[in-house]
Amino acid sequence: MRDADLPCPQTDLRPASQVMRLARMGSFHQSRLSFMRVLLRRLKDQGWRFDRPVFDIDANGVGVATYRARGPENTYTLVAFAHQLDDDKRSDRVIAEAWDATFTLCDGEADADTIRRLADNVPRQEAGRISETEMVLSRANKSVRLFSHVVDRLSAGEQPARDMLESVGYLVRTTAVYGSGKFGAADRSCWGNRPEFTGSFQPELLAVWLIRTFSIDLAEHMASSRAPQTAVRMDPALRRCLGVGNST
């Protein structure tokens, strides 16, 4: 007997008065229907491959990196710009004008000319413009306390404290993830029929997932730059404690 032939279980839905309360909504966990879970299952099932063609970031954590996602039919590239930001300028408010890192997800490869063009616009966010060859515009700030702890520990040859990783949950938090035609980006009609983006917010979540990788790479790079003789990489089991925060 096939699964489709089995009777569907009948379960009464809980009333909105019980479910739609802040105390309950704040404790919801991901499920198989969560947008990110849907994306990651599809990337795995379709055999996507990922690499980092560019990582030109200095010891202060300033520079540019690219993360490439290659699937059966299409390629996408996250271009990440890392900035040096004074603490008094770090703000998660939408009116902020500077961030620890800024990003765009390109439809295809990102060559040197593309990166130069993006460098003039992506760090400016709403004040700049991207083109129809870009799909997502985003920016993020560090969790300064956890980021500093991770760099300190790794540079000393030690692993960060698991309880701190789990209590915060991210090294950077996005303050905006724009898509679908915002600020010149490609409209949904340009990519909406692609199999890898079936579902809601899939290009945006692909960008966020690559931003997560960038945040860990950045911390490891800064630890290695500080103490090249003693620095270690983060244990894979601890990496799994980290996601990306969202302040918006």
* Poorly predicted sequence stretches spanning 5 or more consecutive residues: none
Total count of strands? 7
Per DSSP, what share of the residues sits in E-state strands of 2 or more residues?
15-25%
Distance between the termini: 47 Å
Calculate the mean pLDDT score and round it: 94
Determine the number of helices (DSSP H or I, runs of at least 4 residues).
Answer: 9
Order of helices and strands: HHHEEEEHEHHEHHHE
Output the structural class. alpha+beta
Strand order of the largest sheet: 1-2-3-4-5-6-7
Q: Largest sheet, described in full?
A: 7 strands, mixed
Relative helix content: 25-40%
Task: Choose one word for the global shape.
Answer: globular
Question: What gyration radius follows from the Cα positions, in whole Å?
Answer: 20 Å
